[in-house]
Amino acid sequence: xxxxxxxxxxxxxxxxxxxxxxxxxxxxxxxxxxxxxxxxxxxxxxxxxxxxxxxxxxxxxxxxxxxxxxxxxxxxxxxxxxxxxxxxxxxxxxxxxxxxxxxxxxxxxxxxxxxxxxxxxxxxxxxxxxxxxxxxxxxxxxxxxxxxxxxxxxxxxxxxxxxxxxxxxxxxxxxxxxxxxxxxxxxxxxxxxxxxxxxxxxxxxxxxxxxxxxxxxxxxxxxxxxxxxxxxxxxxxxxxxxxxxxxxxxxxxxxxxxxxxxxxxxxxxxxxxxxxxxxxxxxxxxxxxxxxxxxxxxxxxxxxxxxxxxxxxxxxxxxxxxxxxxxxxxxxxxxxxxxxxxxxxxxxxxxxxxxxxxxxxxxxxxxxxxxxxxxxxxxxxxxxxxxxxxxxxxxxxxxxxxxxxxxxxxxxxxxxxxxxxxxxxxxxxxxxxxxxxxxxxxxxxxxxxxxxxxxxxxxxxxxxxxxxxxxxxxxxxxxxxxxxxxxxxxxxxxxxxxxxxxxxxxxxxxxxxxxxxxxxxxxxxxxxxxxxxxxxxxxxxxxxxxxxxxxxxxxxxxxxxxxxxxxxxxxxxxxxxxxxxxxxxxxxxxxxxxxxxxxxxxxxxxxxxxxxxxxxxxxxxxxxxxxxxxxxxxxxxxxxxxxxxxxxxxxxxxxxxxxxxxxxxxxxxxxxxxxxxxxxxxxxxxxxxxxxxxxxxxxxxxxxxxxxxxxxxxxxxxxxxxxxxxxxxxxxxxxxxxxxxxxxxxxxxxxxxxxxxxxxxxxxxxxxxxxxxxxxxxxxxxxxxxxxxxxxxxxxxxxxxxxxxxxxxxxxxxxxxxxxxxxxxxxxxxxxxxxxxxxxxxxxxxxxxxxxxxxxxxxxxxxxxxxxxxxxxxxxxxxxxxxxxxxxxxxxxxxxxxxxxxxxxxxxxxxxxxxxxxxxxxxxxxxxxxxxxxxxxxxxxxxxxxxxxxxxxxxxxxxxxxxxxxxxxxxxxxxxxxxxxxxxxxxxxxxxx
Amino acid sequence: xxxxxxxxxxxxxxxxxxxxxxxxxxxxxxxxxxxxxxxxxxxxxxxxxxxxxxxxxxxxxxxxxxxxxxxxxxxxxxxxxxxxxxxxxxxxxxxxxxxxxxxxxxxxxxxxxxxxxxxxxxxxxxxxxxxxxxxxxxxxxxxxxxxxxxxxxxxxxxxxxxxxxxxxxxxxxxxxxxxxxxxxxxxxxxxxxxxxxxxxxxxxxxxxxxxxxxxxxxxxxxxxxxxxxxxxxxxxxxxxxxxxxxxxxxxxxxxxxxxxxxxxxxxxxxxxxxxxxxx
Lengths: 993, 279
What we know:
A: alpha+beta, Mth169, Chain: A, 41 strands, purine biosynthesis (chain A), Phosphoribosylformylglycinamidine synthase subunit PurL (chain A)
């Protein structure tokens, strides 16, 4: 009999969770409630004696000092409304899983396979609310209907004797697993319909290629031998659709593009090959530190003589729109599996996250089923927090951008770095291999219907009793346990190949690694399931989290399985690698799929796409000549510039003990650090710097310069803390709106594709110019949110084309790193780099309500000189502080340097190295690339100026003893007169939650 | 120094600071070994063979059921081939050996009843470490050391800086009597302090709202010690958030900074004690 344990706070204890919900209801929904208390509920579906129930409730489930508990007796009383929020069947319940283990530990016996623990939370609300208001609170704040159920009970009809019955949210699927065959010998229209109905996302060309494959006489003959019919099974069709998906094959980046600019036509064969890979190949001839690029889950570079670093950044946008918390946590722990599953395996050492949201203060109408941006932001941040903190990986750098075009789909870029010894058991750690006869072992979590068909949730109604396939919830602890164990296995040489189960699940992880041996056999009935009733294709494609696929040689299998068991990690042999050339799948002894490996991986027809570039001319704003102090204050409060301390403090950035440059820095530890620096090997002084460059607003003018600026910004931040161009690697991450022209669906597709082409041209031009290769990357090409509203209208919100460059640099000695805060009164302030009339897409123009035309352009040759000179000056210990000059221009960088250091400043705009500028606002707020604000001790000024010889660099003022921030304009009069306290307050208050 | 101090650093189930904790032990001169809790339960490693037992920080079981609860439950009821694990730990304490619990490790020690353990009764919980008033927070804190405390680990230290990174670090004694006794018998070892290194209830100097700003306590012997902040995360001067400012100030005075982080003092004290009393 299932029973309930309820846990409430003891008298006098502060209910911080209740308080924060109360505040959120007020701030997000503008509904006032008097008081909220919380009760934790465990529904235990296990046979326990009364004494055992008592032992469990009083032991691991409640705190002896701060909490009280009850068994099968409600604790709720004195409320106007009671809301209980629990998971729907099949949704990952991490705490329930821990609860089950805790019972086993406490009682010293194992529970049965069908015994389980489920959690829910009660909110006791006091206040004058209608049921409709309470239901709004449920939907908007307390839970998510996609994955959770609500009980809403009003205080008057509450029966304290009866309470809420113990309900067990298990998937009760009586479905008998089956394999379907699909007839592809049909008309073109029907082929398209099959693709659409099955959410296969295959084009007509691709469907035809599949149909033709299954018509080949030799294929038919082989199928007959295996007992397969002439028609493909659903297992085969789904496997092909998955393997050929945009997500896995990057079809747009590999397409042939007809690009038209000024009436001139160029044919581009694969942006990936002709821009990204070509650049890296060229650079790799000169740089000896590239270890593995573009071929593994993450890129690998050399760190020290005996250690390498793996780096991967990817996005998890759509899931985060649906379930911000689950989407984001799955994003970060998923990216972790990429870095951890690179080469023979890496130890995770850092995270970096870049998030794009609509304004959390958005007041407009929201389309149905889209969460308010603030809820999305809070949920995503919580997901990133739990994903990083609970896995013990420090989040050392990141960025948050706001633009209302991210309202339909937030962008959640998750980055993960791993450290690996250069050799493991005498073999290069980057080499993975699979010999025929090796076992396919799946380790970690179990398989459910989680994330099948990733983004195609909306077509399916969720109901009690049906599993939630839409959303996955990451389980950081299951993953941490697994990854810890796999590092032990790696060092003992217990496997030869490792890869993660992400998109496409086993079909993808085994399909890809089977290329090493030349084939595989998978036995789907052996795969451990969360619940019964999965069809074979679902087992193969499930994207259930926290799973890795390993190639374990037969002679190591016992040792591997024994280690897994001793570490509490589930591991199962699900097949073996072969050299038959076939992707061969069995279920209960019967073949359910057999596809030629060659066709699976190389049978995909190439796309041909159209692109046309037409620059847009925009109006220029009138520049103000007065009130510049106020404009600066307003800019400090621009959400894109304002302090993100509320978010940063929630991320552990110190774990692993090697923190050097933290995301917040300065006198009061609250200034905006440029790049994060860590010392991953504690007994050495070599460091790793991580930064990001992103500016989608420039893309509104020209994505070529947007991309150049993003590359420049990522590099500049590494230089600012003490890195150098000697060794900086980049990762490119493209998030685009659908760029495939369609007269009805996407009439502006040619322009959007031209934007993509230009971005890639800049990528090639600037990565080669800087000698900073891209070592890995990712693209997410369909960031449009389309849905039919309750009003019957179609909604489409497209993100602005957004490219993120993440940089990793090696710092030879972290003791020489510098931070951005002014250090001493009397120090000299320098502006480095040339300021030009480049306010197009700037935060200042945005403040004036304009985009403009003069987008910042990067002069790569000059930038290189500047960066080399700056690296030399920092290495020589000549620089007291160095700050990247970006959003908001010189004025914002100077203000940040001043208030972070706790000193005032006096600046003369006439001395700023500038190109034909006659307006103070231009000098102050232009966002020209490749610039720094630097402070230098007076006795080092001469040496610093010598070090900067040949690059634009000028002494523009000094650090004051007091707190006044003063700027003298081009005509000698004071144009900004304020105090650093005021600037800092303007900068901090907008996101001080 | 030949008879080396042997230090056991536990890991597993989401503990995540074992590497830097072992490193801090090593810097202090101990011979440190990282061991999975299950290898101790399985009898592959014996607690008895060590002088110092470290419960490092982390997120054991993801803080599910309340921080440290599930791990404490596991240790309390685990059976090794040579008897219950808790008996081995009791013997370890009786033998005059040392235990340190940091962050999640502190939560585990308190919830197991190993701290504060009045009258050397190491069973039963008398205090708790509970949800912060304002959620998870990563920041550096200033700590004032109670020089009246018998705590072995904080000897000779009067003030020290370290990072905190936790969501459940609010120390709450079970009653006023418990609190009074904690003070009277020298259990209180560390308090969160303001810029003048005076104990404070002000957020964020006191990051979690701990009663009497208590950041760390020891048992009556001073040999079992737990604290929320992370001394192992201050193993080198570059860890300090003010490092570049300190370096700049020092360089203008023409002096060099000491490289070792202050956090290592905690283990130096432990190693010194063990060398004097147990080797």
